[in-house]
Amino acid sequence: MNLVLGLGSTGISLARYLRKNKQPFLIMDSRKEPPGLQEVIKESLDNRLLLGSFDKSIVSEVERVLVSPGISYNNPVLEEARSQEKIVQTDIDIFLKENNSKVILVTGTNGKTTVVSMTEKLLQNIYGLNKVVSMGNIGKPVLDHLGEDYDIALIEISSFQLELSTDISSNIAVLLNIAQDHLDRHKSLEKYQKIKQKIFLNTEIGLIGDKALVPVQNKENHFLNFDDLYKNYEKSLLNSEQSKLPDYEISNVNASIAIYQSLKVVLGEINQNESYLSKKEYENCLEILKDFKRLPHRYEILGSKAGLTFINDSKATNISSTIRALESAKKEFGPNKVLLICGGDSKNQDIKEFLDAPKECLKRSFIIGKDSEYIQKTLSKITITEEVPSLEEAVKRALGTYIEGDVLLLSPGCASTDMFQNYKERGNLFKKLVNFS
Q1: pLDDT tens sequence across 78-134
Q2: CA distances from 83 to 86, 87, 90, 93, 354 (A)
């Protein structure tokens, strides 16, 4: 008997997998009406539903616990399963064991969705549209792709999935960056970084954005710093369409191209000792990526009206991401232009990181959400601040204070779940409020 712990899209995918393989299962969730419940009932996956609490007594009845990423590592059912030496797996564990494709894992605090999207476009153009599939956090759960006909699996993987997974392996593993995030779950930045570094446990090639991110136990493995790989080609980059992107997006471009280079090594197309692609091939990659459409809610420049530019960066759910947005805005629009809307659930981040905002960038801040009081106390040290009760009120106040040439930037630096279902709902409301929906 298998126990699926936690519903949602991953839990449904796990249940489908078990039914397809004719393995009996139970589904448990502490919520009485968890997300996906109606879909489970509709698809007749509700063999036995245990809702409303986590009952660890059920563990003795099962051989394996399959866990969704939203479940805490210290969940009482998981702790009981470990004490009884039951098998504990994630959908990632199962996929990595059973799939036959080359696997590229991508994680990091910021940019992983963009890098996976860029890399998918690049690799599909080179190897064929149906040969490369992105999955995981970016799309369907991985098990929904098991058995499909493709050669390369691009998987966006979160710290939650890495923490719970027990058998991580890949051909290429990418750790883009580390900054404060999800400390409400992981408790410390040091623990969060170690969880992220699990991505390198069993990989052929590791790609990093910072040499300090290489785990001590992996020092002898083959690691490449994607920000250093193509420094000889800076002129090519400056002459390309990509030069118009924010600085951090240029790093994402180089990460995507480095993944392609590493895949050529994995496929035996080039020797591992070749340090980088030829200049011509690098420029060909830039050409492929020139019309890459930046993702919604990630520093999405909506346009200008009556002298005010609007930017939707609702996907900035940690402070380091907001700092990046502010740096880009200052570079693009000049000093003292930004009217910032920020705030929400800070997830136990150190709010003082907001003080790393670029000097002479912020003109005024409008702060919303659960932790607005703490954020206001910090930001008031570097700019004019206002606590406001809602996103609607923040936009209203901003529209009443700007002058021509200013920028209204929604970049919360916090999770959205204290006020919205997710960052998409928050960003879509912002676009509606400023008439760009």
Answers
A1: 999 999 999 999 999 999 999 999 999 999 999 999 999 999 999 999 999 999 999
A2: 8, 11, 18, 20, 42
**206 - beta bridge partners?**
173, 223
Pick from 67, 107, 59: which is nearest to 90 by CA? 67
User: Which two tokens mark 65?
Assistant: 């616990």
Helix axes 279-289, 247-266, angle to 10 degrees: 120
AA identity, residue 420: F
Question: For the range 382-387, what are the long-range contacts, defined as Cβ-Cβ under 8 Å and sequence gap of 24 or more?
Answer: 382/354, 382/355, 382/357, 383/340, 383/357
Closest CA to 242 of 316, 292, 177, 315: 292
Residues 6+ apart with CB under 8 A from 418: 344, 345, 369, 370
| pTM given for the model | 0.93
**Strand (E) or helix (H) holding 172:** strand 170-175
Question: CB 289: neighbour CB atoms within 10 A?
Answer: 21
Which structure tokens are listed for 3?
A: 């126990």
- The candidate with the shortest Cα–Cα distance to 364, out of 399, 391, 331, is 399
Residue with tokens 């007594």: 57
- Work out the mean pLDDT of the chain and round it to a whole number: 93
What's the pLDDT score for residue 275?
Answer: 60
Residue 401 is encoded by which pair of tokens?
Answer: 């204070």
| Joined tokens for residue 110 | 């910021």
DSSP-assigned letter for residue 351: G
* DSSP structure class, residue 213: G
On whether the CB atoms of residues 357 and 326 are closer than 8 A, the answer is yes
d(CA 409, CA 428): 14
Six token digits for residue 240: 């390309």
